[in-house]
Specification:
This protein is mainly alpha-helical. The chain has three helices and no strands. It folds into two domains: 10-37; 52-83, no CATH class.
């Protein structure tokens, strides 16, 4: 006859069952995080820039992508369109 709360499974069985369920839940959380990598965060799309046009122009000048004359010409065009 079975007596006690373990019903014959023993301490090892309970520990094994607990390890199984912890592993199962961890696997489930990992799978959901791989399926939905953004985590429900809203914001700019991947690859979208959050820089203003002026910041992009400044960064391009600093990186050497454009020269000072081009920078001034584009800045002038930018300020006349915006302002």
């Amino acid at each position: 006859m079975f007596t006690g709360a373990c019903s014959g499974m023993g301490v090892g069985g309970w520990v094994l069952m607990a390890v199984f369920w912890v592993g199962f839940v961890a696997l489930l959380v990992w799978a959901v995080s791989r399926i939905f990598p953004e985590g429900g965060r809203s914001g700019p799309a991947e690859g979208a820039s959050t820089e203003s046009p002026r910041e992009v122009l400044d960064r391009r000048l600093a990186a050497g992508e454009i020269d000072v004359d081009t920078y001034r010409r584009l800045l002038d065009q930018l300020t006349t369109r915006v302002g």
